Amino acid sequence: MFISNPQYNFRYLAPAKVNLSLQIARKRPDGYHELASIVGFTEFGDSLAIKLSDTDQLALCGEFSADIDTKTSENLAMKAIKTLREHNHHIPPLGIKIDKQIPVGGGLGGGSSNAATTFLALNEIFNLNLSKTNLENMALKIGADIPVCLYRDFVFMRGVGDRITKISNARISNYIVLANPNSIVSTSKVFEEFDKNTSGEDTGWFKGNTDTTQLLTGSNNLQESAIKIYPEIGILLNTMKTLYPKSRNTEQHSIQMSGSGASCFALFEDKKNADMFCRKIQQAGYWSVSTKFISNF
Question: What is the CATH number of the domain that holds 206?
Fold first, then answer.
């Protein structure tokens, strides 16, 4: 029977989340920040394997598994299971194995993607028939970055991450190279640095801007704050700009940091140049992968 099978019965991709642009406004009275971001997801990511079990169990493996707190109760994927149960959905004891390939604390939404994938997977496996809106509401209770990870497409994210709109006919390069300076970034510290250097007024772009083309050619305004605390991010970005093919038009948005860091990315139109660039970044001593964007679960 299913429960006695030592193999995991269901496997799912938890894709890396990339903030192709990210603009943060000043902190609100409730402590949250308003934001506007274009987000994409890649074929590269963690993988989740799920099976029935006698008790809830979490197993971690993969390149970055040692960087994760092994407390089962604190893991976002396990919190997703708990949340479903708290909403009166019958979920039997499960064993979940997470193959951690996404750098931890790297601005690529690894933990959030794991949790979102767990919501989507269990909704499918147990025929819960939950709408995307219901899943978003539950996901928001355990992490502001989780609702957007329920999508597998290019999306426009606003509010505190809770206003999500799919982007139709997005003019975005197919291929992307991710790189990391082998650093684990504290998101809270980056935001603290950002708040120290942000004026009390919101900038004009933020009041109702829905121009995705303009936002795509924008930057990440957390990048400067992250570099002040983690200068290795700036060194990585300079290395990437130096190694980027000279024949291409190196626009500002083609190479930048994702999220609160430390991971950075470079965009390409073709796989050959992306793979070549990735090898050069690896030869320079950095973690790097070449991948492409996905548009479905």
Answer: 3.30.70.890
Query: Would you give the DSSP letter of residue 204?
Result: G
Q: How far apart are CA 39 and CA 166, in angstroms?
A: 10
Kindly list the catalytic residues: 17, 145
Each residue's pLDDT tens digit, 165-213:
998 777 889 999 999 999 999 999 999 999 998 765 555 455 555 566 6
Q: Mean pLDDT, to the nearest integer, of 272-288?
A: 97
Q: What is the CATH number for 13?
A: 3.30.230.10
**29 shares its domain with 144:** yes
Q: Using CA of residue 266, residue 270, residue 276, residue 279, what is the dihedral sign?
A: positive
User: Cα–Cα distance between 225 and 231 in angstroms, integer?
Assistant: 10
197 & 153 share domain: no
pLDDT tens-digit readout, 58-68: 999 999 999 98
Per-residue confidence (pLDDT) for residue 211, from 0 to 100? 64
Q: 193 with 260: CB under 8 angstroms? A: no
**Beta-bridge partner residues of 128:** none
Relative to beta strand 155-159, strand 33-52 is antiparallel
CA distance 248 to 227: 26
Answer whether 126's CB lies under 8 Å from 87's CB. Answer: no
Of the listed ranges 18-32, 42-56, 160-174, 201-215, the least confidently predicted one is 201-215
Cβ-Cβ contacts under 8 Å for 103 (sequence gap 6 or more) = 64, 67, 110, 180, 184, 262, 263, 287
Determine contact, residues 157/37, Cβ cutoff 8 Å. Answer: yes
297 within a domain of the structure (yes/no): no
In this prediction, residue 218 carries a pLDDT of: 74
Q: Note whether 191 and 262 are same-domain residues.
A: yes
Percent of residues in the chain assigned helix, strand, coil, to nearest 5: 35, 25, 40
**What 3-state class would DSSP assign to 258?**
coil
